[in-house]
Amino acid sequence: MKEKQLTTNQGAPVSDNQNSLTTGERGPMLLQDVHFIEKMAHFDRERIPERVVHAKGAGAHGYFQVYKNMQALTKAKFLQDPEKKTPIFVRFSTVTGGRGSADTVRDPRGFAVKFYTEEGNYDLVGNNLPVFFIRDAIKFPDMVHAFKGSPDSNIPSASSSHDSFWDFISLTPESTHMIMWLFSDRGTPRSFRMMEGFGVNTYKWVNAEGKAVYVKYHWKPKLGVQSLDRHEATKLAGEDPDYLTRDLRKAIANGQPAEFELVVQLMEIEDELKQDFDPLDPTKTWPEDKFPLMPVGKMVLNKNPDNFFAEVEQAAFCPSSIVPGIEFSADKLLQGRTFSYADTQRHRLGPNFLQIPVNTPTVEVNNSQRDGPMQMGKYSGPVNYEPASIAEGAPMESASGTQSTFQTEGYAIRKKISKTNDFQQATAKYLSLSKTDKEHLIDNFVADLTPIQKQVQQRMIANLKKVDQELAELVAKGLKLN
To answer: Got the DSSP string for 343-373?
Structure first.
């Protein structure tokens, strides 16, 4: 094998990478040591802004393959041909902790899938739990501030057992359903390969005739759902804080791909207002007996990243990245996410973040965006606007990108949805748990709430009474509030 020659970033050979250029062997350094300056200047800039949430993650490459043609439901091309394998990149992550936090802390897990389709990138950005803490994106900054470390101390860096977390939760009844999931053992998955994924928000599928249907996404792991209990998770956080990251990478390296099945729930648009809950509310699930799971395809993760920073850290997922045949619903949380995710990537990675290879679509990109930091496009000619007729003109508008039409009316108003039912599904979730799972849920609540201010504890007990009287009494007993 030919020996590689060390060079500068400009490609010039480096003859000595051990010693700085100085005046004599003990003299001061010289400014003309361009190799040192280049090396250190790059090192000083190697850390990009950390993600506000989902800072620590692991990723893998693979493919998605649809089971059968879905043209009756959606015109999205990657959902038509059962013979086609669509390349994908997936990033799993924790939500609250920073880049150095432990993998096994109690936290939702991000489950983001980037499909490199023939119509552009499609990002399905979700979590490992089917619901969320809030239903309106305007509350997201407050939620994250409450969940992150205190602004005066930055403590704790990756834990829910602190006053501000429970203060926010206890004052936000719509979060009750979410914490029934989070404080079950689902909040501490045993492996990224053994957890479900959910789109959480409601989207639309639209076929070639313009008929739309609401859709909810679910990822089912081939290995089944397996979780850690609180004691296992705490032990691993100290012994191997990279436990889940290591597990995924090791399994793929050993020829054991991580496999998931994509299933969806469908709802006719005209049935939206016939439910006793709001189907666009991300704090709610759709009953599977009324809206059964339909298998769509499989996802296989079979290749580890070659470079963590270039692929995992710089991977940018945005719910706004959709393709023809998939559209947004009026879900208030989803509507806010369509702006926020892309905007944070422009902050972290720059306005040309889609030119980073892991984010680059596999199809040709044509528009009038030319400048900005890290512009890598090889453009020529005088046209960077549309419409244009000089030179070869500008790219033409495409009929295939047409969105379906829908009617909207009403006063501009700030008001929450009318069908909230904040405790109904939380009760159903609690009653569905096994005796052991109920015991774990109660134990997890007690452990997390023990150091919290008494007034917040009492407010949480009041909320839990609306879920189930027995649950509230057992948690209160554990907190010695009886």
So the answer is: HHHHHHH-TTGGGSGGG--SS----S---ST
Three-state secondary-structure class, residue 263? strand
Cα(388)–Cα(245) distance, integer angstroms: 50
Q: Which residue has the tokens 């390969």?
A: 193
The Cα 11–Cα 129 span in angstroms is 48
Sequential DSSP letters for 73-88: T---GGGT-TT--EEE
- Say how many Å lie between the first and final Cα of the chain, rounded: 74
Please report the pLDDT score of residue 206 as a whole number: 97
Q: Is the pLDDT of residue 250 over 80?
A: yes
Nearest to 436 by CA among 444, 428, 424: 444
DSSP structural state of residue 95: S
For residue 286, the cross-strand partners are none
Helix (H, G, I), strand (E, B) or coil at 460: helix
Q: Which residues are catalytic?
A: 54, 127
Tokens representing residue 247 in the block: 């597990």
* Cα separation, 215 vs 296, whole angstroms: 12
**What token pair was written down for 221?**
């792991």
Reported as a single tens digit per residue, the pLDDT across 110-167 is 999 999 999 999 999 999 999 999 999 999 999 999 999 999 999 988 889 999 999 9
Distance from chain centroid for Cα 48: 19
Global confidence as pTM: 0.95
Contact 75, 81 (CB under 8 A): no
Tell me the angle at which helices 140-147 and 163-170 cross, rounded to the nearest 10 degrees. 140
The C-alpha angle with vertex 419 and arms to 413 and 425, in degrees rounded to 5, equals: 140
Is-contact 273 417, C-beta < 8 A?
no
How many other CB atoms are there within 10 angstroms of residue 89's CB atom? 24
Q: Higher model confidence: residue 393 or residue 358?
A: 358
Say if CB 366 and CB 169 are below 8 A apart: no
- Say which CATH topology domain 1-46 has: Cytochrome C Oxidase; Chain J (4.10.91)
CA dist., res. 413 & res. 233, Å (int): 45
Domain boundary assignment for the chain: 1-46, 57-359, 424-478
- Structure token pair of residue 214: 């609401």
Average pLDDT value for residue range 435-448: 98
Asked if 449 contacts 166 with a C-beta cutoff of 8 angstroms, the reply is yes
Asked whether the bond before 141 is cis by omega within 30 degrees of 0, the reply is no
Is 465:472 a contact under the CB 8 Å cutoff?
yes
400-438 residue pLDDT tens: 777 888 888 888 889 999 999 999 999 999 999 999 999
Nearest 5°: phi and psi at 325?
Answer: 105, -10
Q: Counting every residue, how long is the chain? A: 482
Kind of pairing between the strands at 294-303 and 326-328: unpaired
Cβ-Cβ contacts under 8 Å for 41 (sequence gap 6 or more): none
Give the CATH number of domain 57-359. 2.40.180.10
